[in-house]
């Protein structure tokens, strides 16, 4: 029997070595492929406008204007103005009526979208690569010459108020995350919602929107980005031609991000008429350029995302997912790491039955404490692979690439190459995760937001007392 065991071991050893060589070869090929990805070229014009592009071999392209403007640049009196402008931006310009604008876009088979966030506003257009010059001209016209007719403003007001009601009734995830920002960053501009309060929406007029555009839509606050079959030199010429007249000076002091302050606190909206409880718990994270951002993303990936409809069940790699599936703790959960310029929120959002809030939160915080003290190398390796897969999947196609270029250049002044991102993720170790988790999670005051039948959710002091383990 001993000789058979020795023979079996000897037979297996070459296969193991071959597997190692294959794995090593694959890793090298992967790194080489990332290193050979087209570089993102960035140029700053004399006006301060930044032009960025990545050449993608595709017949379809995306071009976008990304602007430093959003809810975080607003105050309690004008909160909602940026989102309001989103709803009237495509209602026509001083050069084009709404019908002419829509017909021109439709005739090219293009699609134009406007999106508003907490720190930026974007105008993007998906089109054939040969139509990029025309779409740049259209986007420049929309940004520089908005019509802002009183009738359009009135109609947009009714639409926005209706959308706010729909969100509050049907998109409880967004409602809870808005409450989370409101309580975590209370007293600062980052607590502003993108929608703004209804009272502001009812009072915003065309002159307010014109003032908003005049204050924020300046060349140094803009990035023209494109991804597709287009050259950087061509995009620079288009920027000079159509955006060369955008003002670069400000009347008074330029808009600035105000300082933020995280407050451990909670906001609960108890509504027993809802069938499920919606809960978010988070600690203060770090800014997008902070060296800890990647490690926190790995930690978030380690906690993972799970839904009852997912396959795997109790065989899931995430221990929290296994507990959720085995004990039916929740319907779904989502770990997140939201990064802004100078701060962030790291936490989890989950939906559960009314009487399982306490059990689910116990397992969440237990897993957080395990992150701080005993997470293993194997778990971190798995989380790193998932994070890399998710990043690469999110950059599939010119549209996703263009949005990533605009966001990064606007916030960082450059776009991080994929091989650098992969290297930073790969360099994260279990010890790094434990150290960063101890820094941001262990014995920190969390922010809590909950909507629905949340009577079973422990009070804040109990939640706070579970943010550390007493170790002897």
TrEMBL record:
UniProt keyword annotations, A-Z: Hydrolase, Metal-binding, Metalloprotease, Mitochondrion, Protease, Zinc
List the GO terms this entry assigns under cellular component, sorted alphabetically.
Answer: mitochondrion
Pfam family membership, one: Peptidase_M16
Q: Which GO biological process categories is it annotated with?
A: protein processing involved in protein targeting to mitochondrion
Q: Which domain of life is it from?
A: Eukaryota
Listed InterPro entries: Metalloenz_LuxS/M16 (IPR011249), MPP/UQCRC_Complex (IPR050361), Pept_M16_N (IPR011765), Peptidase_M16_C (IPR007863)
Where is the major localization of this protein? Answer: mitochondrion
Keyword Hydrolase assigned = yes
Cite the Peptidase M16 C-terminal domain residue spans from the record.
203-387
Cofactor(s) in the UniProt record: Zn(2+)
Q: Where in the cell is it found?
A: Mitochondrion
Signal peptide stretch? none
Instruction: List the molecular function annotations (GO) for this entry.
Output: metal ion binding; metalloendopeptidase activity
Q: Tell me the PANTHER family matching this sequence.
A: GH01077P, METALLOPROTEASE
Query: Per its record, how is this protein called by name?
Result: Mitochondrial-processing peptidase subunit beta
Native source organism of the sequence: Anopheles farauti
Mind giving the lineage of the organism this protein is from? Answer: Eukaryota, Metazoa, Ecdysozoa, Arthropoda, Hexapoda
